[in-house]
Amino acid sequence: MQLDAYQISVCPPMSLRHVILTLLAEQPASGYDITKRFDASLGYFWQASHQQVYRELARLTEAGLVSFETVTQGERPAKKVYRLTPQGREALLAWLERPASLPVIKDELLVKMWAVAGLAAGDPVPDVVRRRAEHAARLVEYRDLERDCFAAGCLAGLPEADRLRYLTLRRGILAEQAWLDWCDEALSCLPAAPPG
Amino acid sequence: MQLDAYQISVCPPMSLRHVILTLLAEQPASGYDITKRFDASLGYFWQASHQQVYRELARLTEAGLVSFETVTQGERPAKKVYRLTPQGREALLAWLERPASLPVIKDELLVKMWAVAGLAAGDPVPDVVRRRAEHAARLVEYRDLERDCFAAGCLAGLPEADRLRYLTLRRGILAEQAWLDWCDEALSCLPAAPPG
DNA sequence: GGGTTCATGTAATCGGTTACATGATTCG
DNA sequence: CGAATCATGTAACCGATTACATGAACCC
Lengths: 196, 196
Fold this sequence. Notes:
By secondary structure, chain A is mainly alpha-helical. Helices cover 60% and strands 9% of the residues of chain A. In chain A, helix 7 runs antiparallel to helix 8.
C-alpha cells in the first residue's frame, strides 16, 4: 500500500485526510460519526461520502496518525472510535503552517449560460429560479443557526474557538446572500423565455 | 473503451464533456486553444488541464459528438481543429434541459479555522490576509473587464448572448466582493496572533 | 545558449462516485 | 410489516493531478 508515498504526502496538496484529522481534533469519533458530521456542520464547506471516510481512516491508521479502540455497546453494533495520535496532531499542525490553496470553482449553471449564448437556444431562467430557491433555503438555515448559537454582534466576548467557528458560519451567510443578489440581478435582466 | 457507457452518460452527472462542447459551440478550436480558454475567460468558473482536454476530445470524437480536421500551418506544428457535429449540438441541448447541480464547496481555509479551534494552536490570520489579497486582485481584474467590455449599467441594450456572458462576469464580481467582505470581518475580530 | 510559446500526447496515481453487501434495532 | 437508523465495509469505475515525453520556432 505504498505507505512511504502516503506519509510524505501528509504534507502536500490534497486534504480529505486533514479534514478528518480536524474532526478528530475536536473529539474522538467513529467513521459513522464523521460521515454524519459531513452531512451537518462541516458539510457546508467540505463533503465526503462514507466510503471515502472509511478508506481514509484505514490509511490514516496504517500511517500511525490515528488509532482506534473497538467499543461494544450492548445492543447496537460495535464501533471503532478513532482518535488522533501525537503524530496525527503533529501532522495537523504542520498542515496549518502551509498556505491554504484557493478553492476550485466548477459551476454548471454559469457554463450553461455560456452554452445558451453560444447556441442561441435553451432557456437559463428555470435553472436560475431553482438556484435562487436553494440558496434562499440555505440562508434561512444559516441565519437560524446564527440566532440559536451565537448572540449576534457580540463576537468580542467569545472564546477564540467559538469566534473561529462563528466566522465559518458568517462565510456561509455572506456567500448565500451574494448568490441571492446575483440571481435577482440575473432574473431582472433575462426575459421570461427566449424563443427556444 | 466502453463506448456504450460513455454515450449513455452523455446525459448523466458530470460535465467536463459539456464544458468542452460549450466552448466548441462558441467556435471551432484545437485542444490547445481550449486549454488556453480554461486559463482565461471560462477558467473563472471551470478548470481543466490540457491532459484532461485531450483525453476528453478523444472520447467525444469516438462518440461522434465532435469531429476534427488537421490543419497544417507552414512553420508551426499542425493542429487538429475540432467542431461540434449535429449530434454534439443535440447532446448539448439535451444537457441544457436538465437541472444544473449545485457546485461542490471544498474550502481549505474554513477547515483550517475549524482545526485551529479544535487544537487551540496555530494562527489563521496569515492565510486570511493572503486570501484577501488574492480575491482583491481578481476583483480588480473583473472590474477592468467590465469597464473594457461592457458599458456599465446598460444591459437592456445588449443582445441576449452578450447579456448572458456579462452575467457570468457579474457573478465573479459579486463573489469576489463577498469574499473581501468576509476577510475584512474576519481580520477585524481575530487578534494579530494568538499564543501558538 | 536558455526560456517561452505552440502543439500534441502517455502513464501512473490519487480522489471521488456508484453500486453492492450485510445485519441488527427501532419506529410507525 | 416496511422504512429508517446504526455501523461497517468491498469493488468497479470515472475524474483529476502529476510527471514524463517530444519537437520546432522565436525571443533575449
